[in-house]
Specification:
It is a single chain. The chain is α+β, with helices and mostly antiparallel strands. Helices cover 24% and strands 32% of the residues. It is globular.
């Protein structure tokens, strides 16, 4: 049976810290649901009702567009090692860009990563733990470096051009915060 809580407990925080991958789901009021896997050292628990994750440049920018239309978000973690567990964080989120007032405080929580695009600041309204007994075991081997290498090779100017070309409009035609 699933267990809900209205905050991130210390046990939940320890579980989050041990995970190597998480999944983010958002949806506009009308359009496709986006569900994306995330990795790297890019997730932080800021307090019992607030988390943030550092987003690096990707092929799309669906989360940005969706949050402008409907700021609901779900973040999911699965235990692929150890005791079975699935954790969902339900809440609302806002996007923080480098020129936003909150940026300077939030960016200090994360390592410097090439291609850094934005930070998503999430207010957690509830957490849900469920069994996860059907999730297979996977052994963590290492991080993939291809995305960071790609971003380093592009450089700041190349990344900005990529945002211009690929990150301003969602696959459903919705604007992102990168839209003029």
């Amino acid at each position: 049976m699933a267990k809900f809580n209205n905050k991130i407990t210390s046990r939940v925080q320890q579980f989050i810290a041990a995970q190597k991958v998480f999944f983010v789901a958002t949806s506009p009021k009308n359009g496709r649901i986006n569900l994306s896997p995330k990795g790297m050292d890019s997730f932080r628990v800021l307090n019992e009702n607030r988390v943030a994750w550092l987003s690096v440049t990707g092929s799309g920018n669906e989360t940005s567009a969706h949050l402008l239309d409907d700021n609901r978000i779900t973040i999911m973690f699965c235990a692929f090692e150890g005791a079975p567990n699935i954790l969902r964080l339900y809440g609302t989120a806002k996007e923080v860009l480098p020129n936003d007032a909150e940026w300077d405080d939030l960016i200090t929580q994360f390592p410097k990563l090439s291609g850094t695009r934005q930070i998503f600041d999430v207010t957690v309204e509830s957490t849900q733990n469920s069994c996860g007994m059907s999730i297979p075991f996977y052994e963590y081997k290492e991080e993939r470096n291809e995305l960071l290498s790609w971003a380093e090779e592009k450089g700041d100017t190349g990344i900005e051009q990529y945002w211009e070309d690929k990150n301003k409009i969602s696959i459903d035609g919705l604007n992102t915060k990168f839209k003029d």
